[in-house]
Amino acid sequence: MLNEREDAVLTTREACGYLRISRPTYLKYLYLGRIKGAKAGKGWKVLKSELDQFLKGENGNGAILRGTWSKKLADEADF
Q1: Is-above-0.90 flag for pTM?
Q2: 3-27 pLDDT, tens per residue?
Q3: C-alpha distances in angstroms, 18 versus 3, 45, 52, 67?
Q4: Measured between alpha carbons, how far apart are the two ends of the chain, in Å?
Q5: Which one in 4, 19, 24, 75 has a CA-CA gap of 20 to 30 Å to 68?
Q6: Cβ proximity of 35 and 59 under 8 Å
Q7: Non-local CB neighbours of 28 within 8 Å, separated by 6+ positions
Q8: Taking the C-alpha atoms of 70, 66, 35 and 28 in order, what is their torsion angle to the nearest 10 degrees?
Q9: How many Å apart are CA 7 and CA 45, to the nearest integer?
Q10: In the chain, which ranges are continuous DSSP H helix?
């Protein structure tokens, strides 16, 4: 069973800080499915345990995805 810290819900800003990545990179990973999160209003919410799995490479998508963002992603990113 997960303890409360592992089951914490993080905002985009908190998740970026935890992962030490930029907001555009974080959003790209969400849209590509490398990080599982939920859209809540204008922002995204993600479980800290999901970020830990991502860091360990346990997210089921071991390949490093590279390439340009799609037009849709860039339009929705709302920087």
Answers
A1: no
A2: 556 689 999 999 999 999 999 999 9
A3: 18, 13, 10, 24
A4: 36
A5: 19
A6: yes
A7: 69, 73
A8: -40
A9: 12
A10: 12-19, 23-32, 48-56, 71-76
pLDDT value of residue 24: 97
Amino acid at 72: K
Helix (H, G, I), strand (E, B) or coil at 71: helix
43 contacts 12 by C-beta, under 8 angstroms: yes
Residue 20 CB burial class (10 angstroms; 0-12, 13-18, ≥19): exposed
User: How many residues can be counted in the chain?
Assistant: 79
State whether residue 64 is helix, strand or coil: coil
> What are the tokens at 24?
């555009």
Place of tokens 């479980």: 47
Please report, as a single letter, which amino acid is at residue 2.
Answer: L
CA distance 22 to 17: 8
Residue for token digits 């907001």? 23
